[in-house]
Amino acid sequence: MASLPLPIPAITSPHASKPHDAPVPAPRPAASSVHAVLASLSQHAHAHDDALHDAFALVARAEGQPSPAAAVSVGPEVYASLLQCCVAAGSLRAGRQVHAALVKRGPYYSRNAYVGTKLAVFYARCGALADAERAFEALPERDRNAFAWAAVIGLWSRAGLHARALDGFAAMLGAGVPADNFVVPTVLKACAGLGLFRAGRAVHGYAWKAGIAECVYVMSSLVDFYGKCGQVEDARGVFDAMPERTVVSWNSMLMAYIHNSRIDEAVELFYEMRVEGVLPTRVSVVSLLSASAELEAVDEGRQGHAVAVSSGLEIDVILGSSMINFYCKVGLVEAAEAVFEQMEERDIVTWNLMIAGYFQDGQVDKAFDACRRMLETNLKFDCVTLASIIMACVKSCSMMVGTAAHGYAVRNDLDSDRAVACGLIDLYASTGRIEHARRVFNAMSQRDLVLWKVMISTYADRGMSSEALKLLDHMQLEGMSPTAACWDSVISAFLRNGQFEDALEVFKQMLLTRTRPNLRTWSLLISGLSKTGMHQEFTKVAC
DNA sequence: GTGCGAGTAC
Q: Where would you find the membrane-spanning parts of this chain (predicted)?
């Protein structure tokens, strides 16, 4: 934003400081009209610097009067309106200056409840977490209304601080402030983020009792919440019951289907939406593209692209990336490339998608060329880039590049990422350097089930059955419960080595840990033991 | 005030 000639907290206006520039001084606005004009400006200020500029000038002129009466007439509510203008224009810098002016004017201004609320909301909307918290905490408890609570809880939930958002919600209710339709959507977002289905359902019940369950914002959030919790039918139930729908309601339902792998229904809903005359937004198209990518539905995805173009949607970094993802998934790498080259802005995700697309298509040179171009734009590789480079090295057995990637990972603290570590384990194991692979595994401070499984099957796949078993025991000593897939790996290693009794012994242990054998386990054992004359033992164990 | 894109394995 261009530098604003902000006169606040100065008492003089820019005109007053250079009187020769303003031969005809602007008349002082009638005190009563300042507030009304600001309110109207804030409505139209949407990111228009001009409106913000006018608002500041107006206050400056009103403030610039030497008479005490004029100063009093510029009351706290004027500053609140000014903050509203800053919110509308999205200017953190301008709002900070208003804050400074308030402090300078004294406690009558800075401790005003209305202004304090606006200040907290202003900082929250600008995403200034610490400032918003401070402004909120500065409000006396009795002045914290639903509006202020909603602003700060929403800020936490948007920042991904879900637990904090829920604590805030509990505190809000504890303080006797009833929840309204503004705070409920952000609380539902926090519940979905934490996977707290029961809590979210309780919020739904609360919304009913509070009479806000029919609000379109609340209902759209409920659709989203139920979808994220895997309750597609509940999501659809809310969606069908909506007295009115916005495009966000449709998009939430679309995503509910997609997140739950009900892609056909998502595609159908997209068409239904068009039939209803609802104009798709970027989010709708992104959803359709994501469904098409997963389904490898070439026609639908292409249509998504066409809809985006015909609707005049700006192909921003997210929409463009979704297109690249779709085209790469269906093997139309050239189409992905065309989108990629046309994009004005690309971020790390865009680059990673294009790089992975080239690698998967076997266009290794282009992939590395894209890596180089990416570094030239001052972006660094992240764990996704590296995982995809390492994967390509495993495929092509390029130990040299793989080792370089390992070095890059270590230097940039990316070697603790699971996908990178799994890739490296594979890389070293594929060239027989099992001890290198083990070193990568040992260096991981956080080992999840997948990592254990990878290391165990690395041993198992190479017939190192006792090493695999040792690791399986080790895993349990560390308090992890091996999945059926881990047990399968070890059992199959013993079977392949002809160590049938050991295989059966491992199977016994598996049953003791109450891990349910899956189809693979059974077929492994049945075909492995069928020729050994060990049916009886097997039957005894199995039954 | 509600909705969005990436990794072989979860």
A: none
